[in-house]
Amino acid sequence: MRFEFTEEEIMLRDQIRRLTREKIAPLSEKGEEIESPEIARQMIKVIGEQGACGLMVPEEYGGVGVSAVGLCIVREELSKVSSQADLLVAELGLASYGITIAGSPFQKQKYLTRAAKGEVLGSFALTEPNAGSDVAAISTRALRDGDYYVLNGEKVYASAAGLADFYLILAKTDPSKRRKGISAFVVDAGTPGVHISKMEMMAGIPEYSITLEDCKVPVEQLVGAEGDGWNIIFATLGTFRATVGAAMLGLAQAAYEEAMKYAIHREAFGKPLSAFQATQFKLADMAVEIEAARWLIYRAAHLRDEGSRLSALSATADSLKTFDHSHIKYVSMAKLFATEMACRVADQAVQIHGGSGVTRGVKVERLYREARMPRIYEGTSEIQRLTIFRELAKEF
Questions:
Q1: In a domain, 184, yes or no
Q2: Which residues are known catalytic residues?
Q3: At residue 360, what are phi and psi to the nearest 5 degrees?
Q4: Which domain holds residue 66?
Q5: Tens digit of pLDDT for each residue in 103-156?
Q6: Residues 193-228: tens digit of each pLDDT
Q7: Bridge partners of 211?
Q8: What is the CATH classification number for the domain harbouring 255?
Q9: Which helix (H) or strand (E) holds 251?
């Protein structure tokens, strides 16, 4: 049993570490939240130039092939320095993955070739005001009208939508079929009938609502066939949930390192905080949880990649229908544990810092706020537990 990265994966990790230090960190210093589209495009461009965006795109469209392990490495390293840069990569991946697995050659050529180079930004639009965990309850409609679909509805928590060039929007083409009536559409920014509004969030994450009012989308913008939306959602989240865990692994590592440095250099009662057993226990527990999360995450990502490779070798139909789901239990375990772990680690990092830990401008205060949202998006912790139990029950 070997639990090391390959030489290529080590090279990728070191490459992204240099990138974050030399180019991402200076851009991140311009503000906690990306308000400027120019800064967002600079970020995704330099990440794309390092080949990191190519991990979300097949080779024939300029990428290096989808790799969950590679994406986890990228997101872990980015999140240590900039949650904003990580978010841009994640949203581009979420928005483009449906095209990767179910898109037409026209769609792949139009969107994936540019996504691979970091030349575009994307946004994944699934959640609605009255439909979060209950995805089948979405009410956005897409009605066929000749050579177009007319979309009406509202999406919320569409990350980076105000910065994006295109959105992957889920809508119902046949409400009577519930989840089987969901379809996916790729919609370009600036399309008439698309209205973007900023949402104010606790952690400075750029979230937006998308209101669709008689938005006419050409038929060729339908991703896959009508009714493929549910499978696209499932396959997308099955790939990216482990990478959410990786992002929180990076955040937790950053919080732990800040806490360790502070404990060593901060004195109280005539000696460093690190000399007190209470502090030592906190830091030890933080390190153990981070290490446990690391192996859950990378094992889940490896199983996803291996399952997809085997599915591709035996595929007799399109990749959407043959997508392997055997790794879902492990992906949910990784996402659940890592996101909950990051909150615990960030909380202890704030505690070690004392009063300075709750002061705006101190890194651990920002990390504490940023650790909270991932327990909700891409499937709440409760949904992960339901998924894990459902998969466990199949074994009996």
A1: yes
A2: 378
A3: -55, 135
A4: 7-120
A5: 999 999 999 999 999 999 999 999 999 999 999 999 999 999 999 999 999 999
A6: 999 999 998 887 889 999 999 999 999 999 999 999
A7: 154, 195
A8: 1.20.140.10
A9: helix 229-265
